[in-house]
Amino acid sequence: MAASWFGATIRGFAAAALASGALLTSAGAAAAQGLIRDAEIEDTLRVYQEPLLRAANLNPADIDMYIVNDPSINAFVSGGQNIFVHTGLILAADTPNEVIGVLAHETGHIAGGHLARSREAMGQSMGAALISIGLGVLAIAAGAPDAGAVLISGSQGIAMGNFVRHTQVQESAADQAATSYLEATGQSGRGLISFFNENIRPYEFLTRRAPPWMMTHPFSSDRVESLRQRVMAGEHYNATDSEDNIRRFRFMQAKLIGFIQNQGQTLARYPLSDVSQPARYARAVAYYRVSDLPRARTELESLIAEDPRNPYFQELMGQILFENGRAEESIPFHRRSLELAPGQPLLQINLARALNAAHGRDGADEAVNLLQQALNHEPNNAFAWRELAVSRDLKGQQALAELASAEQNFHLGDFGAAVSFAERARRGLPRNTPDYQRAMDLLTFAGEEVRERAQERGRRG
Fold this sequence. Notes:
Blueprint: E1 2-4, H1 13-20, H2 27-33, E2 35-36, H3 39-55, E3 64-68, E4 75-78, E5 82-86, H4 87-92, H5 96-111, H6 114-141, H7 145-153, H8 155-184, H9 190-200, H10 204-208, H11 220-232, H12 243-260, H13 263-269, H14 277-289, H15 293-306, H16 311-323, H17 327-340, H18 345-359, H19 361-377, H20 382-394, H21 398-412, H22 415-428, H23 434-460
């Protein structure tokens, strides 16, 4: 279940309603589309989000942010305190304030405990549906089959009707909370209104044709007018985006366009006549994606010359060189990116990977140290565990390499492979050590998952 900014009102709302029962986007759907990891974009969204979380009396360290590679305009909260933002929403926004307004709305869902309350409301709604079904059965037994059939067939509508009234209240509450957080952080709420008007309100005619019991969100026109009153009365209504927020926004969009769209689309958006830094950044990514290394390097070298302290220019140059078979040449750029943005797990993983590829065993000691630091911040990062397995293997530490591979597969959800690697690690590790105990834990947890899935397959069979 997910508390969402927009749900699925525009794109396939009927199918979404049948799939989720509530017109809400789920974390499973996000996983199906694919998550994007990018240190720069994640950093930008954190900079936008953290003041809002503090205004809501939430600890930023407790909130995780995920970028979903999906062209639809959506953001949502799911699985506890996790915020998911679609790339389509970022690219549809015209200003940083619009993105920040959406993040403020999602913060309102978390602060309001809406996920937990939605589960409770779903249970209550199902209770009403079961009563309707029971009355229908009694009516049939009493000799009124037509009335009984109506009661039974209407049970889903009763359940959904009760539930959507609850979610509409939540969406309105999150809207109002968002304006409070924006005001508390000295920011305008105009982005909320402009984003609605430009990206959601034009499609309201579709939602007005939907059955009322499918409408988990209030009509966008009603939301806009309700927001407008509070936003215009705010002290910071005329506040503008900071130069830093604008700069971050332009680079975030440029990078996404370069990576997500094809070269022709990128050059149409950022033609050669545009010599701004975001334009050159987007073109560098586009050239890199079609393996045009000379032009990618030319664009990036001009950017690095202008701003040698930008860690993400350095990171991208390192990535381009590494993925073109120049691991040794990429190391100084990866090292410089980490010097400029210390403690960033993704940058630590990049450098470790380059050290493994370029120096083998001679680079493995530093790589292990970097990867352990990254995993202290992101213990569920399967890619980091994979690189740690490579580093351990290069050092001749076979049992520890097996343990890292067990961790990798556990976090990927391949529990059978996790059991296999954990068992091999257990045999080679000294007893009564933390590593041995971790291997035993993985055997227990992954083994239980394997047994449960086998039982489920047996029941289905």
